Amino acid sequence: MRFQTFHHNGRQACGDCPIRHRAVCSRCDDDELALLDQAKFYRSFEAGQTIALSGERMDFVASVVSGIATLTQTLEDGRRQMVGLLLPSDFVGRPGRDHAAYDVTATTDVVMCCFRKARFETIMQDTPRIGQRLLEMTLDELDAAREWMLLLGRKTAREKIASLLVILARRDAALRAQGAATRASFDLPLTREAMADYLGLTLETVSRQISALKRDGVIGLVGTRRVDVPDMRRLIDEAGDDSDGGMPF
Amino acid sequence: MRFQTFHHNGRQACGDCPIRHRAVCSRCDDDELALLDQAKFYRSFEAGQTIALSGERMDFVASVVSGIATLTQTLEDGRRQMVGLLLPSDFVGRPGRDHAAYDVTATTDVVMCCFRKARFETIMQDTPRIGQRLLEMTLDELDAAREWMLLLGRKTAREKIASLLVILARRDAALRAQGAATRASFDLPLTREAMADYLGLTLETVSRQISALKRDGVIGLVGTRRVDVPDMRRLIDEAGDDSDGGMPF
DNA sequence: CGGCCTTTTTGATCCACGTCAATGCTGACA
DNA sequence: TGTCAGCATTGACGTGGATCAAAAAGGCCG
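^ Those are the sequences you sent over. The predicted structure of the assembly is below.
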């Protein structure tokens, strides 16, 4: 097995390659993928910037190389719900279609690996392997979305916060190629408001629940953005999940 | 265009075929799919029955031929969240993997078209076209899931109910191959409890909001399970969506 | 260091929805 | 016809989280 899971939703990435691009990095697999290598180009975005995937003469399929971006949906009156976190190796932009009613925004500085949509489609035609990989990734994404639906529909504010922290802790551990430790410490890559948009809460509630978890000794805070988890087990319990970690970390 | 959209989440089905199985029906496409035809077999389930996709010597990938089934996730303490509605043409059971932490339950009597998982995988290998179709369907499903996340995270109870009714109305219209009408009338295929599980509400709230919509003249009820929508436009407004119908009905 | 801006925390209050409990409705069956 | 079992509705009440408002804590830059 040369692929390792490193993503909060179980998506697989190439473990050998610093880019960690399962479906894109040509170093990680057979010659078929060399095609992709020739077609790709890079773009970078600053934190806070909106990432436009379609414009005049520009329709992309892209995948994140580094940094974090978010996918957000908005109601007319301004209510916002984040529906996806784009982490390195994630794809965005639908190969076959024009759609995309999502805002894509860079949370940190982001580098994306882009393909012109039309070009990408022909490559997919010629290289079934790529389609298979995309299918795998999309199924993972779907599983993650469904887990998130459970969170949004049925969890309490406290459980929501705990769940998010667990996910971030796991992702952090995975990025640094560490196994499951009972103690963990990591930076929050999101503002309270972004967390709220993700969890279907208000930023005040997010802040209050984080304070509560701190007061109860479940987490410690260093400044406002760094979290220390003395006992991972305890945090996971707070998340209310049956999964003691479906993810193999 | 021989495929028509008929599903609430925009999934495409073969319009020429009564089975409406885009990815399964061999009549609807090139010879490649004949392979699938040989490998498939059918099973049927009664309303209320749990659909087991894996057991001793039985690992399926299956797709719904007729009837409605639901995908549900459960928390230890019994809180339930429905995460998917399986309608004719929908697939369930992950081709490549063993997972599936979902309850699959028949809502009405259901007929499913099944493939042994291993067999299905080899067919996919040999027939890239099938993989491409599954990718399309999965992407549609993902879009639907994301829309649902917006609903779960940010909509009020009344908006949730209205959204669900709009979806059911559209699906009904599509199944009967009718276009968008301003007046509509259809049966609810779900109990109040199932609606609650789907919307992240309690059954009491569902009942109350339906009563409220009726009181306000947005809908009419015939008995308890049949809904009459005098003005579709109005119901859609109640749903709070920006989309005046992203679906082309 | 001091001013300015953004993010975060905290408090007071409100209300949408959950909870608990009673009642009604419908259909199956003897 | 009565009884029973499942939905469904309705009411009374409590509460988790939203809302509104203000203070505190960081950056950032002169």
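Chain A touches chain B through 47 residues (CB under 8 Å). Residues 191-193, 203-204, 206-208, 210-211, 224 of chain A lie near DNA strand C (CB under 10 Å from a C1').

Shout if you want it in another format.
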